[in-house]
TrEMBL record:
Official protein name in the record: DNA-directed DNA polymerase
Pfam families for this protein: DNA_pol_A (PF00476)
Gene source species: Agromyces indicus
Broadest EC class assigned to this enzyme: transferase
Catalytic activity line of the entry: DNA(n) + a 2'-deoxyribonucleoside 5'-triphosphate = DNA(n+1) + diphosphate
Keyword Hydrolase: yes
EC number(s) recorded for this UniProt protein: 2.7.7.7
Cell wall biogenesis/degradation among keywords: no
Residue ranges of every copy of the DNA-directed DNA polymerase family A palm domain listed in the record: 322-542
Keywords assigned: DNA replication, Exonuclease, Hydrolase, Nuclease
Gene Ontology molecular function terms on file: exonuclease activity
InterPro entries: DNA-dir_DNA_pol_A_palm_dom, DNA/RNA_pol_sf, DNA_polymerase_A
Length: 583
DNA sequence: GAATGTTGCGCC
DNA sequence: AAAGGGCGCAACATTC
């Protein structure tokens, strides 16, 4: 059974099952209770334009749904997938009320500004993410519109090259949208005091507004002295580069890896300064004030936010939390963190994707890199890692590029898969993940560069530029198939874990409720996701059951994508009070 | 003075 | 030690 939800204006909401008796129109404030009742009675798949329009409101009232279909995210996948190309030519177009997906904007063609964002924003709940758009600002869809679009999308999925794979992708993407909303509502438990201790140990006491921390000022003075440049602004790349060269340090930029090459008394304080400056500006006191509210980091996750299907964030920088501040991630009293990451996910995905028997054999144990050494392909684990990353990223030089050919001889099918993806991209064509997410086409400027090189009056420089641009795009598509399929594995992992956690609950008389809000205070819940890693906030008495569920979900994700293919996806899993306690 | 581009660095 | 993929963000520099 499915039930669609849409706004009808003036704070009213229509809700309806196209084939059944459940048709209602209610005030917004009565929606959570109604959804809760229908969820309990029918466990429907909820069909809506955009999960971000509805999930925050429901979660704020403690209401969770098990399944949904996010028409915006699924529509974006179907609009690009090569797996439905033929059917799409014959199907109706995406309706105008359905906005594009988060990763659909072409690289060099900025999206046109939305007509009336402010006017539309008022329709949404206050706690909804700020940048929700209604597409072109036209009328919201009717229930019939939603049902028709849902039917259109399901028909496209049924007509896909692998209908089961596409249906799985749409379900996983929609589940991801629910998880993203839930992560934001629950928040990542954050100990402000612990974070402040880290800052003070590194930077000294919090400076007055407009001042830099003492430790940074000291280091800046040392740099100016060592470079004999008393008026140098250390924060200015241009200024700094001039001063470095004047002091006889032959660098082409002020990047850390280049500075490290030189032996000069200015280098050490400069590198220390840059490290502290980064901590201060990215995760300093100002960040704490802005982002840590009520013991929680509530970052905005953008499901499907990147071309490959990996998520992005908007605000809070939750996907770039530096290791030094992770000690501030601390479970509530009576609760624990179950931290799990899929080790060596991408090479394992490559092995399974390519059905490369030799590489799959290496991926059967816990350490794929070690197995490559044991198979005699390279001499050290470090070399195995660098070679594999080089193969997936398209390295051509350095140690990595040198080792790749040896990998190719040992694992020809895996290498053929990524090489083929690279050639497809170099030709300006799209590649597609296992479940059916396709890469974008290169920007018009790319095509123009290629056309210029093929013209009658092409210069050697034109041809060089075109070859370089083609190889760049080839590296992108080479990586796309692996990174994108790994993202699908991770989505399936979470989609499988979510209902398992929802089925658990805090035993009576057990620890206090968590501070994660009414939807999560009495059950284990996801609080963090980072590409191939997740954190569950769990009552202490349930950590064992949660760990089992996390492992079973990882195994389930492997089966969903690859059937019984002989590649394992082992987890590194820890049960801790603080994130710092993990490797 | 606001918008846009570049650089550098944090994460996977 | 260096350089291959995907990102977001802050700061500075440049342009309008």
């Amino acid at each position: 059974m499915r039930i669609a939800i849409t706004a009808t204006g003036a704070g009213r909401v229509a809700i309806g099952d196209p084939d059944g008796p459940e048709r209602h129109e209610v005030d917004r404030e009565h929606l959570p209770a109604l959804v809760a009742r229908l969820e309990a009675e029918h466990a429907p798949r909820w069909v809506w334009r955009d999960t971000r329009e509805w999930a925050p409101l429901l979660l704020a009232h403690g209401v969770r749904v098990a399944r949904c279909h996010d028409l915006r995210l699924c529509g974006a996948i179907l609009a690009w997938s090569t797996a439905v190309a033929t059917a799409r030519d014959e199907a109706p177009a995406r309706p105008e009320w359905l906005p594009p997906g988060p990763a659909e904007a072409p690289v060099d063609e900025p999206v046109a500004p939305v007509a009336s964002v402010a006017a539309h924003a008022a329709l949404f709940e206050l706690d909804a993410p700020s940048e929700i758009r209604s597409g072109d600002g036209s009328r919201p869809p009717s229930l019939a519109d939603l049902d028709a679009e849902h039917d259109r999308q399901l028909a496209l999925a049924d007509a896909a090259d692998s209908p089961g794979a596409m249906r799985l992708l749409l379900a996983a993407e929609s589940a991801g949208a629910l998880v993203a909303a839930e992560l934001r509502t629950a928040g990542l438990p954050w100990d402000r005091g612990e974070h402040e201790r880290v800052l003070e140990a590194a930077l000294g006491p919090r400076p007055a507004p407009g001042r830099k921390p003492d430790r940074m000022e000291e280091l800046a003075r040392a740099v100016r002295e060592a470079l004999d440049a008393p008026s140098l602004n250390v924060d200015s790349h241009a200024d700094l580069l001039r001063a470095l060269r004047a002091a006889g340090i032959g660098v082409g930029s002020t990047a850390r890896w280049e500075l490290r090459e030189h032996d000069h008394p200015a280098i050490e304080p400069l590198l220390a300064y840059k490290r502290l400056a980064r901590l201060w500006s990215a995760n300093g006191w100002a960040w704490l004030d802005e982002w840590i509210v009520d013991r929680r980091l509530r970052a905005e996750y953008v499901a499907g936010g990147t071309a490959t299907g990996r998520w992005a964030t908007s605000g809070g920088g939750a996907l770039q939390l530096p290791k030094v501040v992770r000690g501030a991630v601390t479970a509530d009293e009576g609760w624990s963190l179950v931290v799990a990451d899929a080790s060596q996910l991408e090479p394992r995905v490559l092995a399974a994707l390519a059905r490369d028997p030799a590489m799959a054999a290496a991926g059967r144990g816990r350490d794929l890199y070690r197995a490559i050494v044991d198979a005699g392909v390279v001499e050290s684990r470090d070399e195995a890692k660098v070679a594999l990353l080089g193969a997936m990223y398209g390295a051509t030089s350095g140690d990595s590029g040198r080792l790749v050919p040896r990998l190719g001889r040992a694992y020809p099918r895996a290498m053929a898969l990524v090489d083929d993806a690279a050639r497809t991209g170099e030709a300006g064509r799209r590649v597609t993940t296992l479940l059916g997410r396709s890469s974008p086409l290169p920007p018009t400027s790319w095509h123009e560069t290629q056309a210029r090189a093929n013209g009658v009056d092409a210069t050697a420089a034109d041809e060089r530029r075109a070859r370089s641009a083609a190889r760049d795009w080839g590296r992108f598509t080479r990586n796309f198939v692996v990174q994108g399929t790994a993202a699908e594995w991770a989505l399936c992992w979470m989609a499988s874990l979510r209902p398992r956690l929802a089925a658990m609950s805090l035993p009576p008389g057990a620890p206090p409720a968590s501070a994660s809000g009414p939807a999560f205070e009495r059950m284990p819940h996801l609080v963090y996701f980072l590409h191939d890693e997740l954190i569950v906030h769990a009552p202490e008495g349930l950590t064992g059951a949660v760990a089992d569920a996390v492992r079973e979900s990882a195994a389930e994700a492997g089966r969903l994508l690859f059937g019984e293919a002989p590649v394992e996806f082992p987890l590194d899993l820890d049960i801790v009070r603080s994130y710092a306690a993990v490797s």
